[in-house]
């Protein structure tokens, strides 16, 4: 499964009401570190299909979702389980580190 793009309007449905854990990536087109982790998140989305859903939120187009989560810098990653944040981290990381963080959290 490819990553899912969420908007301010679809954030609750895609993230908080999901029946599987969700990794949310708050990112922007102009953000270098965001572009660095993008391919890794796409790969993890396919590899972990059924176990976790990866949702991307463009902070420039969807400022309400980012503001509601208190995002001050990007990339900002949050893991939701049963509608609640169970873990978060900021900044870019290699694929292995992201995968380890996700597995430990869910």
TrEMBL record:
PROSITE patterns tied to this protein: THIOREDOXIN_1 (PS00194), THIOREDOXIN_2 (PS51352)
Site (Deprotonates C-terminal active site Cys): 25
Gene Ontology molecular function terms on file: protein-disulfide reductase activity
A Pfam short name: Thioredoxin
Disulfide bridge positions per record: 31-34
CDD domains: TRX_family (cd02947)
Protein family membership: Belongs to the thioredoxin family.
Protein name per Swiss-Prot or TrEMBL: Thioredoxin
Originating gene: trxA_2
